[in-house]
Predict the structure.
Amino acid sequence: MQLHTLKRKTANKKSRQVGRGGTRGKTSGRGTKGQNARAGRKKRPELRDFIKRLPKLRGRGVSSFKAFRPKAASVNLNTVNTLFKAGEVVNATSLIERGALKIKKGTTPRVKILGTGELSKKIVFEGVEVSTAAKAKIDAAGAEIK
């Protein structure tokens, strides 16, 4: 006698089949009565209703609150004060040359001068945005904004 020649004494007993839904018997695993037990039931998933309530973003990508215009790169007054001498021009290209900014995606970024630190030199600001705090300090130092 070997393992592959073994046979059982009695054959497997098959359970009685009911004609509604194959081998699961009587209610075929559908419980009893109600909308869920019926054939062709169309019950919407609850999650789908929540999804349907949310507004569509219609071509605005991930966030509709994000601006189309890229954000300006910020530079503080104290860095401008250390990098530039009196009478020099501060603009995007001069800031990139001095290492205060980096070129983003092959284009020179917009620049905004912020009011952190002090300005002690008469420097010319050209083609840059200036915050209100920085504007007050620039005017006090005698520098000009073009």
Remarks:
- The mean pLDDT is 87.
- The CA atoms of residues 21 and 63 lie 48 Å apart.
